[in-house]
Design a protein that fits this description.
Layout: E1 2-10, H1 51-63, E2 67-68, E3 75-79, E4 89-93, E5 97-102, E6 105-114, E7 118-120, E8 125-127, E9 134-140, H2 147-164, E10 174-180, E11 187-192, H3 195-214, E12 222-227, E13 232-238, E14 248-249, H4 260-269, H5 274-285, H6 289-295, H7 299-309, H8 314-332, H9 336-339, H10 343-354, H11 360-368, H12 377-383, H13 392-405, H14 407-414, H15 419-431, H16 438-450
Parallel strand pairs: 11-12
Antiparallel strand pairs: 1-9, 1-10, 2-5, 3-4, 3-14, 5-6, 6-9, 7-8, 10-11, 12-13
Amino acid sequence: MKCGLEIHVQLETDSKLFCDCRTNYQDAPPNSNICFVCLNQPGAKPYPPNKEALDGAIKIALMLACKISPDVTFFQRKHYDYPDLSSGYQRTSIPIGFEGDLNGVRIREVHLEEDPGQYKPDLGLVDFNRSGIPLIEIVTEPDMTSPEEARKFLRELIRVLEYSDSARGEGTMRADVNISLEGGKRAEIKNINSIKGAYKALQFEMVRQKNLLKRGIEIKQETRAFLESQMITVPMRLKEEAEDYRYIPDPDLPPMLAEEDRIEFIRDRMPEPAHIKSERFVNQYHIKKDDAQVLTSELEFADAFEEVAKEVDPEFAALWMRDELKRILYYNKINFQESGITPAQIVELLQMLQDKKITTKAGQRIIEELPQNTKRPTQIAEEMGLIGVVEEDVVLQAVKKSIQEHPEAVSDYYQGKKQALNFLMGQVMRITRGKADPGETCKLLENELKK
């Protein structure tokens, strides 16, 4: 299998690519964020391209290790007839960046184009609020050889786009998937709007093409649609080639030049890409690759880890931030920035754990209180009565008491039921009010049960 992707994602700008209309199309009534320019009315000329969109495209291209074209670039008209394209053509730039790489997948080119409107074929209606919003298109080489590789690439790409702070992320993503099997022609699956959709479309299309080749049926070079409700692809039309779009330079837009000073200005201010940061975390902090992947899932989360690692052992910090802190963020359905948790709060909590001022269980209860809470972890621990770790002899007494009071659980343990040990652990924690160290408690329980 060979797979290449064409990914379109909206750029984060206040105004459209060639006019001053707002880009908050999802919150606006239909056909309200429009003007003569983005409707391409006769006599209406486009403004010079949105500078913020151009800078965003250059930044993303640099984060994907692309070379930036030193030559003059310009917008072309890509002709095709569709109800959501009022002019009969789409303005798209020649490549701004080229020959990039993301985790071994080659990036053929990165360019800028305008979004069409939104057509609803079932109603025969078009909303042009989206028309003219700047899009970045990222085209890969056919370097992916399985649906799993394509899914992994898309996840990494979305992280790069989120780090850039110049793109709107997976919610506005539309991907065209090109797939072929050895001995067959290429099919392009259009307008897939999620990573899961791309994965499912590739799975189905791979099996479909494989079965055709087995039966000796020639695979057509065609464009197909993905029906997400059924998780299948269906024919749309024969595959277009570049000549079919009748590209011509747009005579209404000026040529552009990405000057070296401007490129370096953007490079100096762009964040370190997530996939590079993840590798650095492994090498610099000696943490596991899986931990580094989770820690770099958000730029603010990664920055917080680096602040915490200045004060606390990085491996210990990575363990707690990856497992416990992420657990709380997932449960509350918020990201790290929205949580309001500060690196200082994390440092204080972890130092309390390392100094054995609180137990692991107490630490888990404290961390659950941190989102949207300006109190220090020490204050939270005092208010909840969680300060202190009981001595071993007190824990041993609690262990003996739990064994004496629950003979049925002891019998279950001897019969090989692992949950019985967890039950007895819970009883010890209840007796000690959660101040027993779980690891030591488990050892004491097992020792007593062996007697």
